Amino acid sequence: MELREMLAAVAPGTPLRDGLERILSGRTGAIVVLGYNELVQSICSGGFELDVEFTPARLRELAKMDGAVILDGTRIRRANAQLLPDQTIDSLETGMRHRTAERVSRQTGFPVISVSQSMRVITLYLGGARYAIEGSDVILFRANQALSTLERYVARLNEVLTSLTALEIEDLVTVRDVVTAMQRVEMVSRIWDEADGYVTELGTDGRLLNLQLEELVSGIGRDRALIGADFLEADSEVVHTRMYALSAAQLANPDDVARALGFGAGELDTQITSRGYRLLSHIARLPESVAETIAAHAGSLQALLSYTVDDLQQIEGIGPYRARLVRDGLAQLAESAILERRY
């Protein structure tokens, strides 16, 4: 189970989180194992077996006993069980409950939750990692910081894309300009991913934040794909994987980004020509399939900009209406982009 999937399962508003909050409110501790198989069964001693539907109230009542509660999906399979994991498994935890929880998670591969009675903290152990489940107020504070940062980066990305459009029209684009645009796209994507993690942790408390995120970054994936279609030879998924693999330091280095995009060393100042996909995407009421047909036929943005209405009508599937739509749309975009860049 992935960490984000597990965080969603214990987010505010879920039955499991409700049960854990009830345990905290009752000032008792607990160990909850989220999985049941022969290995889990082999390290359990004592207690009693159950096979009942999980409810928050049942979890709270069963946690009053000292032993662990074993869940299997939506069923409670065992309660008050003493867990006897392999004592040779390394653990940096000092408390008995937390050390046991960590060892059980490492040995079985299942998520294990420990609720501290004295510290009033919920801790999740998964895949050898330890994750503290914090309250909504703490997570919301971090989420708002991430959202504020994201807004600034999106604004900067829009400036870079506007500049790139003007350079495309003037046929002055270099590899460095494409690298800058893709750097900004990747930075926005990473901040978005961090903020989206907070949305997952907030559960029902993160609905408003999710709407704000969707509004801010709804077109980021499309921008990445269109820049790739205009300037790159490598497959878009391959490029995305390479960019994702870059460290923060590498992402800040234009040479490293250029290599990830498929360019050679020392090519940052090499001039390249746009194929026109991204500019055509900005023309209202022009279907994506039609835009792709036009861009493929023209071969480059510069060739496309020289097309007349009659030239456009020679392309299969382009009638008088769409030819005029494309011609006027390109002219307006060119004028707007150049004016914005100059002033």
For the termini, the CA-CA separation is: 52 Å
Main pleated-sheet profile: 8 strands, mixed
Question: What is the CATH superfamily classification of the largest domain?
Answer: DNA integrity scanning protein, DisA, N-terminal domain
Report the order of strands and helices.
Answer: HHEHEEHEEHEEEHHHHHHHHHHHH
Shape: elongated
Name of the level-1 CATH class of the largest domain: Alpha Beta
The CATH level-2 architecture of the largest domain is identified as 3-Layer(aba) Sandwich
Q: State the helix count.
A: 17
Query: Number of folding domains?
Result: 3
Poorly predicted regions: none
Strand fraction: 5-15%
- CATH fold description of the largest domain: YojJ-like (1
Provide the helix percentage. Answer: 55-70%
Average residue pLDDT: 91
Rounded radius of gyration (Å): 28 Å
The total beta strand count reads: 8
The assigned structural class equals alpha+beta
Structure in words:
There is one protein chain. The chain is an alpha+beta fold and 343 residues long. It folds into 3 domains: 3-133, DNA integrity scanning protein, DisA, N-terminal domain (YojJ-like (1); 137-260, DNA integrity scanning linker region (Ferritin); 277-342, 5' to 3' exonuclease, C-terminal subdomain (DNA polymerase, domain 1, Orthogonal Bundle). The chain is 58% helix and 12% strand. It is built from 17 helices and 8 strands. The protein has helices spanning 3-9, 15-25, 38-42, 56-62, 96-108, 136-170, 175-202, 207-217, 220-231, 236-245, 248-251, 254-260, 277-281, 288-298, 301-305, 309-313, 320-342, and strands at residues 30-34, 44-45, 48-53, 68-72, 75-83, 112-115, 122-126, 129-133. Strands 1, 2, 3, 4, 5, 6, 7 and 8 form an 8-stranded mixed β-sheet that branches. A hairpin with a 6-residue loop joins strand 6 and strand 7 (122-126). The protein is elongated. It starts with a helix and ends with a helix.
